[in-house]
Amino acid sequence: MAAHALATPDPNHVSGKVGLHDGRSGDVLAERSESSRRIIAGYGFWIFLLSDIIMFSAFFASYAVLVGATADGPSGRDLFDLDNVAIETGCLLLSSFACGMASVAASVKNRLWFTVAMAATLVLGLAFLGLEVREFYGMVVQGAGPSRSAFLSAFFALVGCHGLHVAIGILWLLTMVAQVYAKGFRGEILRRILCFSLFWHALDIVWVALFTVVYLLGSGA
Amino acid sequence: MNDQGGKVDRHQSDTAPGDDRESVVGEVRNYVIGFGLATFLTAASYFFAQSGFIWGPAIPVALIALAIAQMGVHLVFFLHITTGPDNINNSLALAFGTLIVLLIMAGSIWIMAHLNHNMMPMDQIMRMQR
User: Using the beta-carbon criterion (under 8 Å), do B112 and A65 form an inter-chain contact?
Assistant: First the structure.
């Protein structure tokens, strides 16, 4: 086996093709078992999520550096409304839980419960996004938009980037429900649902860091 | 693997991130436990931030500790990242990601604080340029 592997021009199968013994070549993914494909898709998406979190950490670092640079403008203590943030946090946490219920429903291929749980995820995600847009709008109206100070630029970049992720997640959620209705719980659809739920839970993890560092520390200290 | 025509599943002992090797009841139970713990930790951080229960300068440390604990709860109960042998790849990737995040955060804050400390006040720079 070792000699064979060395003789192969592509020992790590990066081309996605593998030479078979009778001379035919086949698609590596097509020959793998379903559980193995699920692991490959999930692991690849996990790597993507980690790099996304690394990108967020750069935004967090710039926010931490610029948090004092208010240019005599309003600081976090003047702007942040912790009650609003508490409701946002509750929405996102409940929506993460509902998404977990949706992936349980998908694993037993129950379309009714999958739809109900995804609808709950959607409504809570939209509520979160609506509250965030309202907060941003209120800040811009009172003259505290992203161009007011370096602190506000960093704030809008960081929180806005998370909000953008949630918006993309909502589009993805609608796509997944539509695909389940159009194609049923097939292997590749279940893999996409796995990736979607990973994405949605990862957004909640970023939000934990966000409400602690930006809102709680910003309005207290 | 090639010798058997690709039939051997070399990932038999792995688990995809997000997958739970539990029955349906066990899976739901894990999500409920995770949700309860996350709610408790969130409520605790709001309480410590707004009440004078702990010494003022210690509040940031307490809040960051609670946030890290809550991220751990999310990872274990929602993303099902464990330390088991079927999860080694997932947790190693997580460990590497955490390392990079810490390097970026601590490095940026450290360097920028030093630069800020060592830089001449802006009005003096302006005066020298005149």
Answer: yes
User: Per the structure, how many domains does chain B have?
Assistant: 2
Q: Which domain holds residue B68?
A: 16-81
Q: CB-CB: which of B19, B45, B50 is closest to A212?
A: B45
Q: Check if A149 contacts B (Cβ < 8 Å).
A: no
Q: Provide, rounded to the nearest whole percent, the portion of chain B with pLDDT above 70.
A: 90
Chain A contact for B50, CB < 8 A?
A: yes
Residue B44 exposed, middle or buried by CB count within 10 Å (0-12, 13-18, 19+): middle
Q: Which residues of chain A have pLDDT under 70?
A: 1-32, 221
User: With contact defined as beta carbons under 8 Å apart, do A90 and B40 qualify?
Assistant: no
Q: What is the CATH number of the domain that holds A40?
A: 1.20.120.80
pLDDT tens across B28-83, in order? 999 999 999 999 999 999 998 888 788 888 889 999 999 999 999 999 999 988 88
Per-residue pLDDT at A2: 47
Cβ-based neighbours of A140, under 8 Å, separated by 6 or more: none
Return the pLDDT at B82: 81
In DSSP terms, A27 is beta-bridged to A17
What's the ipTM? Answer: 0.81
Question: Cβ of B16 and A41 within 8 Å?
Answer: yes
- Inform me whether the C-beta atom of residue B94 falls under 8 Å from chain A C-beta atoms: yes
Task: Report the residue of chain A nearest B1, measured CA to CA.
Answer: A1
Q: Indicate the residue among B61, B81, B101 that finishes a domain.
A: B81
Mutate to test the interface with A, among B2, B9, B41 (most CBs of A within 10 A): B2
Query: Cβ separation of B27 and A86 shorter than 8 Å?
Result: no
From the CB of residue B73, how many other CB atoms can be counted at a distance below 10 Å?
21
Tell me how far the alpha carbon of residue A182 is from its chain's centroid.
24
A65, A208, A158, A61: which is closest to B104 by C-alpha? A61
